[in-house]
Specification:
heterodimer, A: mainly alpha, 6 helices
Chain lengths: 140, 60
C-alpha cells in the first residue's frame, strides 16, 4: 500500500517554500544593497532607481562632511541617529570600516549631510519592507 | 572634499530622491508611482517655500 498524500502536496509545497525563502532573502539583500531586494525579484528598474536614490543621498551626506552614528547607549537622539544610519546596510558598514563620517558637525551643511545619511537609511528600511511585500505577493 | 550646497539645492536634492523612493514604495502601478512621486516632490519643495516665506514674515 502506498500513501498518495505526499505526492499530492508536493507540487503546492515547492512554490510556497520558494516564496517563503524569497520573503527572507529579498529583505536581507535589500538591506545590504539598496534596491537589490527588488532586483532579485526581477523589478530591475525599480531596484535601480532605489539604488541610485538611496546611494546618492548617502554619498552626498558623506561628501557634505556629515557625521555617522555608531552603536551607543547614550542620548536618545544619538540612538535614533544610529538606527537611521543602520538602515543603509552595506554602505553603513563600509563607511564605518573605512573610518568615514567622522566629521564634527560644526556648520549647517555638515548637519544637512548627517540628516541625508539618516534619511537614506530610513528610506532603505521602506524599500526593504516593499521588497518583502512583493515577495509575499501583497504587491505586484 | 567638502560639498557645498545652498539650503535650497540641498532641499531640492533631498526632495528629488525621497520622492522617487516614496513613489516606488507607496503605489502599485507605474502610472500611480510617477504621479505620487511628482506629488511628493511638489509637496516637499512647496513646503520649503511656504516655510521659508512664513519665517520671513515672522522675522519682519
Amino acid at each position: 500500500m502506498t500513501n498518495p498524500t505526499p505526492l499530492k502536496t508536493r507540487p503546492a509545497a515547492v512554490p510556497a517554500q520558494s516564496a517563503s525563502m524569497m520573503a527572507v532573502l529579498a529583505p536581507a539583500i535589500g538591506w545590504l544593497i539598496p534596491g537589490a531586494g527588488h532586483m532579485i525579484q526581477k523589478r530591475w528598474i525599480r531596484g535601480l532607481l532605489l539604488l541610485i536614490s538611496i546611494a546618492t543621498l548617502f554619498a552626498l551626506g558623506l561628501m557634505m562632511q556629515g557625521h555617522i552614528y555608531k552603536a551607543n547607549g547614550g542620548d536618545i537622539l544619538d540612538i535614533l541617529g544610529f538606527v537611521g544610519d543602520l538602515g543603509a546596510g552595506g554602505m553603513y558598514i563600509v563607511t564605518l570600516a573605512m573610518n568615514g563620517g567622522q566629521g564634527a558637525v560644526a556648520f549647517a551643511i555638515a548637519d544637512y549631510g548627517t540628516k541625508f545619511m539618516i534619511v537614506a537609511g530610513l528610506l532603505n528600511f521602506i524599500a526593504v519592507a516593499d521588497a518583502y511585500h512583493i515577495a509575499i505577493g501583497k504587491k505586484q | 572634499m567638502t560639498l557645498q550646497l545652498t539650503h535650497f539645492s540641498a532641499a531640492f536634492v533631498f526632495a528629488l530622491f525621497a520622492s522617487i523612493v516614496f513613489g516606488i514604495t507607496h503605489r502599485e502601478t507605474t502610472r500611480d508611482m510617477v504621479r505620487y512621486g511628482l506629488y511628493c516632490f511638489a509637496m516637499f519643495l512647496g513646503g520649503v517655500l511656504v516655510a521659508g516665506w512664513a519665517m520671513w514674515l515672522v522675522r519682519r
